């Protein structure tokens, strides 16, 4: 990592950035220059490198279709995590009485099993992301945006938001916003408890994350408008 190791991470929780911060994610500029995604430099230089919203929006659309057509790692199911925990060493949770004697109460180490499953998923997802050709340029552009907003570790912020954007569909309701009755696949009419009816997972990185998510939407909108205009022109010419 090229950042100072004392820099506090700007966002809590997610571990994606370590997986996708690898040196394989270098940004190739339009003139063929290669540099780290976390470009540090004067603001005017940064803004000169920034693309138009519609250009970035088109790159985002390409990135999403590249991601969608890739083989995705699946999160482990609850049962698989239970099985994993059963294979791990048990941990002590207080004491229990057996035949009138206090003995250590050994239980499944569920937190460790969840952590292991989570790390595996992030590792696999990191490998997948490393193969997406459009990712470095999109990440570079969103890093510029985060830097322009004054975010600490703009490269990490950009990586986290991109991964959220690619995988934001709620894993419980699959974006339908309602709970599904087990075994039937039918919606119960109750709002999904995990996403609270938004159909999406929570945006990482707090306010800067929300701001960049809005910026992404703006870029997508600009790209779609530009695509429609081009189509209309072609139709008029034909
Ligand atoms: Zn949901």
Along the chain, the helix and strand elements come as HEEHHHEEHHHEEH
Placed side by side, the strands forming the largest sheet appear as: 1-2
Bound molecules: zinc ion
Can you summarize the main beta sheet? 2 strands, antiparallel
Low-confidence stretches: 1-41
Write down the Rg: 22 Å
Shape: elongated
* Contiguous helical run count: 8
Mean pLDDT: 83
Helix-and-strand structural type: alpha+beta
Q: What percentage of amino acids are in beta strands?
A: 5-15%
Q: Span from first to last CA?
A: 53 Å
Can you give the helix content as a percent range? 40-55%
- Would you count the extended β strands for me? 6
Description:
With 238 residues, the protein is of the alpha+beta class. The protein has a domain at 16-20 and 41-70 and 104-168 and 203-237. The chain has eight helices and six strands; from the N terminus they run αββαααββαααββα. It has helices spanning 16-20, 43-49, 53-68, 78-87, 110-130, 135-148, 154-166, 206-237; strands at 26-28, 34-36, 91-98, 101-107, 178-180, 187-191. Strands 1-2 form a two-stranded antiparallel ribbon. A two-stranded antiparallel ribbon has the order 3-4. A two-stranded antiparallel ribbon has the order 5-6. α3 (53-68) crosses α6 and α4 crosses α5 (110-130). Zinc ion binds at residues 170, 172-173, 192, 194-195, 199.
